[in-house]
Every structure is written in C-alpha cells, then in structure tokens.
Amino acid sequence: MADPAQGVLQRSVENDAIQKTGRRRWRPQWTARMALIPAMTITIVCFYGFIIWTFVISLTRSRLLPVYKFTGFDQYVRLFANERWWTSMQNLAIHGFLFIGGCMVFGYLLAILIDRRVKAEGMYRTIFMLPLSMSFIVTGVIWQWVMNPGLGLQEAVRALGWDSFEFNWIVRPDRAIYTLAIAGIWQQVGLCMALFLAGLRNIDPNIWKASRVDGIPVWRVYLHIITPMLRTVFFTVFILMSAIVMKAFDLVVALTGGGPGFSSDLPARFVVDHILNRQELGLGAAGAFVLLCTVIAVISPYIYFELKKERGGRGH
Amino acid sequence: MRYNRLALYGLLILAAIMIMAPVFIMISTSLKSMDEIRNGSIFALPADPGFAAWGKAWFGDCSQALGDQCGGLSSSFLTSVKIVIPALILSVGLGAITGYALAAWKMKWANVMFAALLVGMFIPPQVTLYPLIIMIRELGIFGSIPGLILVHVIWGVAFTTMMFRNFFKTVPEDLLKAARIDGAGFWRLFWHVMLPLSLPILGVAMILQFTYIWNDFLLGLTFGGRSGQPMTVALNNLVGSQFGEKEYNVDMAATMLTALPTLAVYLLSGRLFVRGIAAGAVKG
Amino acid sequence: MNGVELRNVTKAYAGLTVMENINLEITDGDFVVLLGPSGCGKSTLLNMIAGLEPTTGGEIHIGGRNVTELEPDERDIAMVFQSYALYPTMSVRKNIGFGLKMGGMRKDEIEKRVADVGELLQITPLMDRKPSQLSGGQQQRVAIGRALVREPSVFLFDEPLSNLDAKLRADMRVELKRLHERLGRTIVYVTHDQIEAMTLATKVVVLEKGRIQQADTPENVYRRPANRFVASFVGAPTMNFISGKMLQDGSDIVFDSGAGQLPLVDVPTEARNLIGQPITLGARPEHLLFDDAGIASRVLLAEPTGPDQYVRLAVAGSEITARCGPEQVFRSGSDTRILIDGARMSLFDPQSGQALLQA
C-alpha cells in the first residue's frame, strides 16, 4: 500500500519544475480601489459637491433659475426675517421634542414590557412595528381621516354620549403641530421599541441573577441598573429620531399640508416649497443650508463616537 | 406577582389596540359606503362591506376622466414597480460591492470614505435637491423613470454600503487571508466567499430598500414629473385634490392599496425586517 | 532548495518601526517555530512571509526566489490559521479544493488531489459536510488539508493549535510532527506556547519587541538562553534570577546575594573568570539541588504536579522555586538545604541582560 504522502510529494516535484516568473501582476488592491469609484463619485459629487453648490446658490439672488450674482448673506437676512421660517423652526423644536421624547419613552416602555418574557412576544412585536412598513404619506392620510373633526374620532366619541368631547386639533392653528407628533410617534415607536429591545436582550443575564439574589425590585433594576447600561442605545435612538425629524416632509404634506395657514409648517417643507413652487431658489437654498447646519450639530457627536469605536475595534 | 403579570398583559394589549386602531379604521372605512360613513362612527364595522371604493381607487372614475386618464392608482402602481425593481437591484448591488471593498481590503482612505458616506446618510435630501434636479435634467432623464431610479440609487447607496460594510467587518480576518493565499482576487473573493456569507444581510438590505423606495414621496414628487409618478405621489394627489364631495372610502382604499406591497413584504419577511432595522441602526 | 530567507526585513506602521533588520535563514525541511509573547511581532513576521502584509524594507526569499513584491498565491506557500478560517459556505471538499480551483487546475485533477489529501488526513468521510458540522479537531484537519493540497514549498502555521482543548492539542502536536517527518517540507510555525516550540521545532526563534532574541535548536534555547528574556520566557516554572556576585570561599565558590551565600557546585572554568563581578545568576528549578551541604532555606509552599513537585523557598533574601521528586514531603514553614548546580546555571550581565558564558 503506497503511502499517500508519497503521492503528494512526488507531484510537488513536478510543480517546482514550473518556474514562476517574478514579474508583478495586476493586484487585487487596485481592483478594490476601482470598485469604490462609483460610490466615491456619488459621495463627493452628489453629497458634498451639491452641498457646496447649494451653499453657493444661497449667496446669490437666484429666484426661478440659478443666477450667479452674489449678494453675500442677503438671503440669510431675508430668511431670518421671514415669519414663516420662524414658525417652521419653532414647529421643528416643538415637534422634535414631542416626537423624539414620545418615541423614546413609549418605545422603551414597550420594549421593557416585551422583555418581561411575555407569551406571543412575536405577535406584539409584529403589531408594534407594523406602521413602520408604511410610508409617511399613508400614515398622514390615515391620521387625517381619524382626526377629521366632522366624521372622525371627535364625532365617534361624541356619539357615545360625551357631547363636550373636543379633538379638532388638525383644524386649529394653535394645535395642528401636535397632531404631527401623534402620527409620527404612532409610526416610529416600533423602531424605538426594536432598538431598545435589542439592547435589553444584550444585557448580561447575570445582571438579572445578581439583582434577584440581592432582592432588588424589578422596576428599580430597570431604573438604576439597566437604563444606565443602555445609554449608547438611547444615544443612537435619539440620533436616528432626530434625523427623521429634520427630514420630516412627507408627513406634514399628507397630514396637515403645513396648515392651517403655515401653522404646522416645518423647515424641510419650507425649503422644498421655496425651491420647487415659489421660485425663491436663493431663499430656499439658504433655508436648506441652515437645516443642514442643524443636522450636523446634532449628529456630529454620533459620527465621532462611531469612528472612535472603529479605531478601537480591529487589527492588532 | 399575578397582578403584575395581569397589568403587564393589560398594557401590552392596550398598546396593541392603539397601534392597530388606525389600521382597522382604514380598512373598515374603505369597505363602507359614503352614506354609512356619514351616519356612523369611524369605529363601527362596515354593515355591508363592499369593494366598490377599492375599484374606484384602483381604476379611477372614468366618468370624470380628464383625457384618457381616469385618475386611479393602477398606472402609478406600475410606475412604482418599474422604479423599485431596478433601483433595488442597483442600490443593493452597489452597496454590497462598496461595503465589501471598504471592509475587506485595507485601504488608507477607507475609514475617511466610510465616515463621509455615513454623514451622507443623515443629509436631508432637501439640501441637495436643486443641484440634483439640474444634474438629472442635464442627463436628459428628468421626469422619467430612469431619472428616478438613478436618484434612488444615489440616495440609497450610503445606507446599503453601511449595512454591508458593517456585516463584512465581522467576517474574521483570517478568512480573508486564507482566501488570498488560495489565490482569490477581488471579485472571486466577493463571489465565492463573501456573497454566499452575506445572504441573510442581502435579504435584509433588499427588504429595507424596497420599503424605503416604495414609500418615498419627496423624490417621486420632485423627479417623477407626469410620466414617472409613483404611488405615494398619486395617493397624495388623489386625497388632496378631489372635486366635489370628498370620498373617504376611496381615500382609504387608495391608502390601503399603496400600503399593501410594503405591508405584505413586512408580514412575510417578519423576523428579517426586525433584524435589519436593528442591524441597520445600531451597528452589529 | 525550499528554504526561506529574510534579509534586513523591516516593518513600520505609520512611521513607527515595529521590526527592524530581521535576518533569518530557514533551510529546506526545517521546522522553525517563531516563539514569543503576544505583541512580539511573530504574527506580523509570518504575515510578511505569506505576503499578507507588505514589508517596509528588506527582502524575503522563498525557494531561492525573491518574493518580496509578489502576491500571497504566487509565493508557493500555504497557511493554516488559528481560527482555521474555513469557508463557512463551502463543503469540506470545496474548502480543500478552492485554492486549486482559483489556480485554474482541471476539475478531475483537483478531485484526485483532494481525495489523496483526505485519505492522508483520514477525513474522507467528512468530505461533504460543512465546517459548522465538524468538531474543532476535524476543522483543524481540514485546514491542514487545505494547505497540504497545494503542495507548497513552505507551510506557514499561525498558532494552529491554540483553539483546541488540552488533550486534542497534544494529539495534534504529535500528528503535526509526524506529518513534518513524512513530508519533509519547510514549516514556519508561530506560537506563544513553549511546549509546542520545544516539541515540534528543529529551530526555535524567540522574538520580543520586534527583534530576534535567539534562534537556535530547542535544546540550546532551553539550556543556553542568549539573554534574560529568553531565559525567563522559556521554561515553566520560570527560571529563578538572583543578583549578586560569585565569591571564592577556599576551594569552594559561593554566590553572594548580599543577604546570604548560596553554595555552587561544579562551576565551569570559564565562569570562574567572572568571580567578583556583579552578575545575575539564573537557575532553573531543576538546577537547585536539595543537599545537606547547601544553605538553609525555609519552605513556603510545596506544589505537587504528579511526576514532580515544585517547592517555593525563601533563601538568601529571595524567593525561588526548586524542583524535586514527588516522594519527599515538605511542610510549609519547615527548613531544608539547597545548593546550585553550577554546571547548568546561566549567568547574565545585570545591565544588558545578555548571557555571559557562551557566545
């Protein structure tokens, strides 16, 4: 019986005969660089290049079409003197506070409820995340109907006998902005729940064992031990929700149309409206740039932490 | 302890009812007649459920037709499909390759570029909207389906790249080394080793991108024009600009029709969607 | 000629030199073990030989060919990884054949070679399984098979046994040694486990802080460590170090630590030249002899290991470990007497840490 090792050896002698040349061939690293070209082009041109372009336009007196007659920061002066812009910024603050706060509080509570090893956990999770799969337009249209003062919720409750019940916020200039938060939370609370739940499930089960041995009540464990442990998750959720708030356009359009009047307008809608409909390109660009600065202010700590985490992560 | 559990389930059920109520209202309204809507509560079940409103939402009302258009959602449904499929394949494919190149091949600027992309994900589309319009117009594809596809690829690549890059970063470095010693170059490493490994994340990226592209409104509104009007834009027009009496049952049927594809994907994919949302947001 | 030669190999990361002027000659058929603590640069060195990391300077020759600029698959090498690095989505058969397929070999030839290797490593029944369906030891065999099938000039092993449990590790060690003897191929093997180094190597290269501390046979590395680092890194329990100087006491020589005098026996002549100089004495546990002629020492603790026992002693102001057979009984707190076997001790320069006796 021949030793299989002999076969392996014999052939390798033949291998040696095929002398490989020492010339330098095409390197896969070069292909890797080339494969990045499309994404790199998009990043450089369509993200950063276009941001600069928008900034440049915001310094001109462009109205219907871009004209490169520079007027310095005139458009920004106009913007900050614009009442509709201030309303929309104020609305952004109100909506941001209510929406982010509501999503985080309700999302965390739902995650805790589910985390308590309930039966049919999958069903609850599926239900809570269901609105996430729908578009903001759909959400807006549904809630517009639910909050319809004539035929919606208000009327339905009154029909039950509570005649003085009032829920006509959607047509009240001083309340319309709050309806945005209601619909927004309804749609996004599932995302927060999922993120918090993932965080809760990552907690070392020994923490729970230890706290049971120590006899700490469950709510105290959540409040004093678990919640502080989840601070990075809270941070991430906050950033994601902020990004959604800043971009919020579809929901306003579908739910209130920015109205009544401009009472529920948001900056994102202000910008689109001025660029597409009002032929105020320069002013819209200025608004867009201010919006971008707000976004950067909020997300830069996040990007910073993401990259710091990277550096600690890999390699030796 | 028993009361605690009872309260727990009570709260969960209450929350589930509150989440489901608007969906229920949407469906039940769409099955009612306008008379019933006017005289009954929104919470009431339809007394005589019918799909008349659905038909009207889908095909439109040709008695009030403007030209040959009846105003139904059927044509914009087709537009949406024509946009979603190529945009989905292109954005996920490009994201997979870019994410793989960034994660598996040591390059000096990989981290800088990834950071640049990551920031890009947070840029509100309004900020680059106008330059993008000009670019698409210069390319001669403004107001058309190809234009919208390109815009969706541009806006989707940051997200898909992030998903794939974060996934490929978890592949052990030894595996990449082994493949290089085995003589696999860039494409063969991707095709034979990395892509088969990434099938779950590929599914996740497909599902999420499908949802995002289908649900998009702003880009469709801006770049679609008349011929490239996706379903969300058509829905908004339908609801917003009805002459005469508002037909809430038709509105709700149209809403349901618009939501149906993503709802179906969500319900069918279940766990993948949940996993993707978590993986895409908090990095793995 | 299937050796490996490193000429002035240098590695720097972002301007920081982590390895400088590494020179090493590995002759055909050698089993060279790169040994060192984690972070000493042994894996970096192996990766540079493999072509997975570029060198900053110097040249690498494999089989007489300058491969410094070549891709890993052009270097005629194969590598086995600590994590096995099997392709999770491929069957064992495809895992082993992947490299050949990438090299453009004909299908029937690949099949034949894979089958041969499977037989050699006794993994034929596992051929259609996926890596996740294999035990750690089986995965290890597949990883070795994937290297063997390419029939390279040089095999590179990156801590291949670290992930196995103790028993399996011992078995695989024997098998690797047998495989090396059968194939007679050059092997470069990285580990931090000195047992692996001592049992497998024909040549041990001890690395620390990006420098070669000693490159020699396992026996010499153990018996004649080139410096204090090698002396303390190789051998368990570790070598005892006492600083002081040798003194002539009539015909006897003692080592004076300042707090006591340890008698030395059989001191070689060349060591006598160092009498009176400040030195560091290194004595392994087995170099300490329990003898009534020795110095009084207090037993702190006895650790029986089965075949031996290690006795922790307080003597001459230091704590040292001595080895003896299991039959003797030591009580903590009792007294005993020890002396040092001068023929086997090591002497180091207290400043540089270099060994003073041999070149």
Automatic annotation (TrEMBL), chain A:
A GO cellular component entry from the record: plasma membrane
Topology within the bilayer: Multi-pass membrane protein
Superkingdom of source: Bacteria
Keyword line: Cell membrane, Membrane, Transmembrane, Transmembrane helix, Transport
Residues that span the membrane, as ranges: 34-56, 92-114, 126-146, 176-200, 221-245, 281-305
Transferase among keywords: no
CDD domains xref list: TM_PBP2 (cd06261)
Localization per Swiss-Prot or TrEMBL: Cell membrane
Domain ABC transmembrane type-1: 89-304
Gene3D superfamilies documented for this protein: MetI-like (1.10.3720.10)
GO annotation (BP), single: transmembrane transport
SUPFAM superfamilies per record: MetI-like (SSF161098)
Family stated for the protein in its record: Belongs to the binding-protein-dependent transport system permease family.
Name by which UniProt lists this protein: Sugar ABC transporter permease
Source organism of the structure: Thalassospira lohafexi
UniProtKB/TrEMBL annotation, chain B:
Entry keywords, A to Z: Membrane, Transmembrane, Transmembrane helix, Transport
Record field: transmembrane: 7-27, 83-105, 112-133, 145-168, 189-214, 252-274
Listed PROSITE patterns: ABC_TM1 (PS50928)
Domain of life: Bacteria
Chief localization: membrane
Subcellular location: Cell membrane
CDD domains named among the record's database cross-references: TM_PBP2
Keyword Membrane attached: yes
Record-level GO BP terms: transmembrane transport
Membrane topology: Multi-pass membrane protein
Nuclease listed as a keyword: no
Cellular component aspect of the GO annotation: plasma membrane
Record Gene3D superfamilies: MetI-like
Start and end residues of each ABC transmembrane type-1 domain: 77-269
Family: Belongs to the binding-protein-dependent transport system permease family.
Protein name from the UniProt record: Carbohydrate ABC transporter permease
Gene source species: Thalassospira lohafexi
From TrEMBL, chain C:
MF GO annotations: ABC-type transporter activity; ATP binding; ATP hydrolysis activity
Pfam families in the cross-refs: ABC_tran (PF00005), OB_MalK (PF17912)
A GO BP entry: carbohydrate transport
The protein's name: sn-glycerol-3-phosphate ABC transporter ATP-binding protein UgpC
Family: Belongs to the ABC transporter superfamily.
PANTHER family: MALTODEXTRIN IMPORT ATP-BINDING PROTEIN MSMX (PTHR43875), OSMOPROTECTIVE COMPOUNDS UPTAKE ATP-BINDING PROTEIN GGTA (PTHR43875:SF1)
Species annotation: Thalassospira lucentensis
UniProt domain ABC transporter: residue ranges: 4-234
